[in-house]
């Protein structure tokens, strides 16, 4: 069995010298390598033994790892950990953009008398947190349809959902959930078009925040 370092560079070495050698532009004999059999037996893989050859390919890892903040987390709750990554700016963004889109939609549509959208009122930050918390709970308790989480069928009844908010309110927020201002959208083919426009504000918020809070290890 080869050591991890040997296996880790096998693919690169095969690409660098294995394929080139077959085309006649180089020779495997020019490098300090030890093949575990011929190319037919190993599918073109070559094991590099000389560390000096590939050591320069590996960047020295000297980054800080673990929690990078200054707040003492010794007795922190799960919610406090979550708040390190999803800050007030995040919650304000999705709350404001959801309310904005709701008004844009309602002002541009002629609603039917029976439409539940007549019942819309602006969502608050605390209500948005409850809404997303229910989404997380749906990942723990899987059901076929959203309506099933509020159904009172006794074998699968989950009363917690109805205690947080009504089904109609949940579905109305879901209908208007937004992360960007539609009026700023640049159409495809125009300068400045962004395929990730719908989620770009969230990406711009959370990626720098994640990098500032936690440093991952070398081996992710």
UniProtKB/TrEMBL annotation:
<protein>
    <submittedName>
        <fullName>PiggyBac transposable element-derived protein 4</fullName>
    </submittedName>
</protein>
<dbReference type="InterPro" id="IPR029526">
    <property type="entry name" value="PGBD"/>
</dbReference>
<feature type="domain" description="PiggyBac transposable element-derived protein">
    <location>
        <begin position="77"/>
        <end position="216"/>
    </location>
</feature>
<dbReference type="Pfam" id="PF13843">
    <property type="entry name" value="DDE_Tnp_1_7"/>
</dbReference>
């Amino acid at each position: 069995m080869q050591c991890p370092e040997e296996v880790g560079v096998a693919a690169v070495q095969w690409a660098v010298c294995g394929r080139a050698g077959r085309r006649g532009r180089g020779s495997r004999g020019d490098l300090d390598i030890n093949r575990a059999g011929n190319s037919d037996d190993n599918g073109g893989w070559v094991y590099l033994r000389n560390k000096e050859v590939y050591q320069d390919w590996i960047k020295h890892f000297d980054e800080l790892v673990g929690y990078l903040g200054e707040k003492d987390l010794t007795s922190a709750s799960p919610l406090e950990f979550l708040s390190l990554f999803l800050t007030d700016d995040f919650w304000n963004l999705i709350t404001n953009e959801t309310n904005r889109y709701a008004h844009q939609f309602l002002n541009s549509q002629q609603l039917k008398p029976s439409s539940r959208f007549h019942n819309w009122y602006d969502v608050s930050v605390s209500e948005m947190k409850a809404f997303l918390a229910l989404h997380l709970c749906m990942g723990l308790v899987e059901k076929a349809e959203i309506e099933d989480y509020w159904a009172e069928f006794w074998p699968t009844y989950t009363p917690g959902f109805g205690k947080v908010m009504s089904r109609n309110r949940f579905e109305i927020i879901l209908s208007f959930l937004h992360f960007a201002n539609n009026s700023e959208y640049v159409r495809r083919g125009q300068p400045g078009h962004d395929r990730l426009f719908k989620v770009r504000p969230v990406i711009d918020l959370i990626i720098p925040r994640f990098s500032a809070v936690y440093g991952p290890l070398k081996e992710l």
